[in-house]
Amino acid sequence: MKVVVTGGSGFIGSNFIRYILRERPDWDVVNFDALTYAGNPENLAEFEGKPHYWFFKGDIANPVDVENALKYKPDAVVDFAAESHVDRSIHGGASEFIRTNVSGVQTLLEAVKKFEIPRYIHISTDEVYGALPLDSGEPFTEETAFQPNSPYSASKAAGDLLCRAYFKTYGTPVIVTHAANNYGPYHFPEKLIPFFIMRAMKDEALPLYGDGKYVRDWLHVEDHCAAILAVLERGTLGETYNIGADNEIANIDIAKMILKILGKPESLLTYVTDRPGHDRRYAISMAKIERELGWKPKYDKTNFEQGLRETVEWFKSHQDWSARAVERSKGVNEHIVV
Ligand SMILES: NC(=O)c1ccc[n+]([C@@H]2O[C@H](COP(=O)([O-])OP(=O)(O)OC[C@H]3O[C@@H](n4cnc5c(N)ncnc54)[C@H](O)[C@@H]3O)[C@@H](O)[C@H]2O)c1
Predict the structure, then answer these.
(1) What is the structure's pLDDT at 333?
(2) Residue 337 has what pLDDT?
(3) Mutate to test the pocket of ligand 1, among 56, 84, 326 (most ligand atoms within 8 A of CB)
């Protein structure tokens, strides 16, 4: 099996490539990545020059790059490439988000159609469904209507709808996944969990948006990778699959857990002006993927603290990696308040 993975130098993409090189050692993997500020060549450096792994620098919104990568007719494309930072889509302008997350997806779909690639797995987010109230409301299912609230989630929803349209119009073999918030190794330090870990390690304040009671369903990245592999191997074309972890936790509780693990005082918690349009709560039903593909997360609410503890340990032992990732993003994320 030959797989092209777009965005393979980012957080989830690099975990996914590492996961399939371990779980499917006879597969060939091409990492197709533009190496934006979030794409980190260090993440997969150990595989450079080794059998079964190739890196291809390219932009998914550039048809020439995409055709050059797909003309060798891989068996599947798994598409992680995206502008992924909600705050940047709000404060830094959304045009790059539209370019990659919408035009890029359409460019990939065209090439998948042209070269008759048998499977295109498009990785998306539960944020396309909008927000739930804090203490009520059924979890998002695959039937929930899209109501995106940030430029990021709107751009992801547009990409997802293009996938649907190509399947309906041309029979392009797509599957879309919507995952909850991920955490784990190689998480770019602009995102909440690594950002809080890094600040707490340096005894710096942990800035919480608004009242801090913003709830996400935290999914360990390795569980996400296992779910995507199940979808890639056994998912039904034209379907969508939601991937959650039955693990709803408020930001303030995550911050307190990180402080406890690191032995730091709760006086480091601070409150800052809320994010505009901030979604109060996400919760996602994983009933369909569990029922149809037999996937379940290893980390849920019963052992989240263990997953978080391992993640803290990873960041403690990779402080140079984090420092270099932050350095590389200088000038890109300056507008971000926290
Ligand atoms: N991080 C999460 O919690 C989460 C949750 C659900 C879904 N997702 C989705 O998963 C995917 C991966 O997210 P992530 O957190 O790993 O993102 P990330 O920002 O860490 O990585 C994105 C990768 O895409 C690459 N890229 C960006 N624009 C590109 C372009 N035009 N052409 C080629 N490569 C390009 C970057 O260089 C980077 O390597 C995204 O589609 C995101 O929407 C993320």
Answers:
(1) 64
(2) 40
(3) 84
Tokens linked to 330: 């200088």
List the chain domain ranges. Answer: 2-187+217-247+280-300
- What six digits make up the tokens of 110? 């065209």
Nearest of 228, 229, 224 to residue 245 by alpha carbon: 224
Tens-digit pLDDT profile for residues 97-142: 999 999 999 999 999 999 999 999 999 999 999 999 998 888 999 9
Active site residue 126: yes
Query: Given the CA of residue 126, which atom of ligand 1 is nearest to it?
Result: 6
Pocket of ligand 1 from Cβ distances under 6 Å: 6-7, 9-13, 33-36, 38-39, 59-61, 80-84, 100, 104, 123, 125, 156, 179, 181-182, 188
Question: 283: helix, coil or strand?
Answer: coil
pTM, full prediction: 0.97
Whole-Å CA distances, 76 to 1, 18, 26, 107, 122:
8, 17, 15, 16, 11
- Does 305 qualify as catalytic in the annotation? no
Measured at the CA of 135, the angle between CA 290 and CA 148, to 5 degrees, comes to: 70
Q: Assess whether 23 carries a catalytic annotation.
A: no
| CATH classification number, 2-187+217-247+280-300, choose in 3.30.70.100, 3.40.50.450, 1.10.260.40, 3.40.50.720 | 3.40.50.720
